[in-house]
Amino acid sequence: MKRPAIDPALLVILAGVCAALHVGKLPPALPVLRDALGVSLLQAGFLLSMVQFAGMTLGLAVGLTADSFGLRRSMLLGLWTLAGASGAGGWARGPGDLLALRALEGFGLLLVALPAPSLIRKLVPMNRLSTMLGLWGAYMPFGSAVALLCGPLVMALFGWQGWWWGLAVLSAAMAVWLALGVPLDAARRSPEGTGQKAQSATSIAPWPRRLRQTLTSRGPWLVALSFAVYSGQWLAVIGFLPSIYLQAGIGGAAVGLLTALAAAVNIIGNVGSGRLLQRGLRPQTLLYIGFATMSLGALMAFALAESQPLLRYAGVLLFSMVGGMIPGTLFSLAVRLAPGDDTISTTVGWVQQWSAAGQFAGPPLVAWVAGAVGGWHWTWAVTGACSVIGMLLAAQIARVARADP
């Protein structure tokens, strides 16, 4: 039998990156959409967060059904949904149209993101799992960075509609590649040498039992809430960077490059967290460092260095890069602290639901504060509060992890 041209687990990660492009495609388009469709600042905040609406409301439900419906099949459906919604978005005639289609894109993102950690777990041996989940944790910042970098270039040539349509074609192509590269049998059984038992669809517990197991366990709650306070502040800061720079008089091409770099350095933290966990560093230590550094970076960027552009940008890079250790660590904890093997997708669904809630609330909250005080200089207070909550949750995670080694 001919071997696939690419590691199926890496193909799953690439599918996540493709889905993340749809999250990152909006920030560089906001200035254009304001002129073309009359999008206000508050509407821009909701456009940034609306892609998370499905995750905020349906994450747990999709997680419950992912195993029985099929992990691979769920991801394929998600990619086709993204292709259709993005294609239709190119014909939007007002903010309302875009808001509705962003919600549909959020559903597609959910279908791609939820099954991926469980599918990766089935495709790789245990000695590679932390590393691969660290790579998976980078799917969002990497996809966002590519979109932030390429978006202005594509829009300069083809307009914002061409940008939407191009990503629709890319998502459809990714769906075909995933269908060819991850066979059905690989998606249903664990690889040899992992020490895991193969699980057939008939061995999966009924959904009420899986739901009860997940929601009555402390681990999934703590990981989910931690993801919420991380993702809300990260998307708020990175999502509004193009608008912040344009208001500061920085040119369009430079805005795309600076914002893409700020998103891309998050990958360093994600990949680094997987390697550090593989070497035995405690997850709660990485969470403490990540949240504390995000608080410091936001303080530098929005309060202490307001009149020093280079130092201010260094704060943004610090915020994103070291903060990147948080999602990689939390994905690993979600797999580890799930009540059972058949509740991993359910646990990830619960985590995704709270992560989406954070991303839904974060950008509008930061936009509201900026509008109320007449600038972005109090953004650090919002992100700092999130980081303090994150460190308190990390302390509780440490207790649960010690009780469930």
Walk me through the structure.
The protein is mainly alpha-helical and 405 residues long. It is built from 19 helices and no strands. The chain has one domain: MFS general substrate transporter like domains (Growth Hormone, Chain: A, Up-down Bundle), CATH 1.20.1250. Helix content is 81%, strand content 0%.
Q: Please, what is the CATH homologous superfamily?
A: MFS general substrate transporter like domains
Gyration radius (Cα, Å) is: 20 Å
As residue ranges, the low-confidence spans are: 185-202
Overall SS class: mainly alpha
Strand content: under 5%
Q: From the coordinates shown, what is the CATH architecture?
A: Up-down Bundle
CATH class: Mainly Alpha
Average pLDDT score:
83
Shape: globular
What is the string of SSEs from the N terminus onward?
A: HHHHHHHHHHHHHHHHHHH
The count of DSSP E runs of length 2 or more, i.e. the number of strands, is 0
Tell me the major beta sheet. Answer: none
CATH fold field value: Growth Hormone, Chain: A
Distance between the termini: 40 Å
Total separate domains:
1
Helix content: over 70%
Number of helices: 19
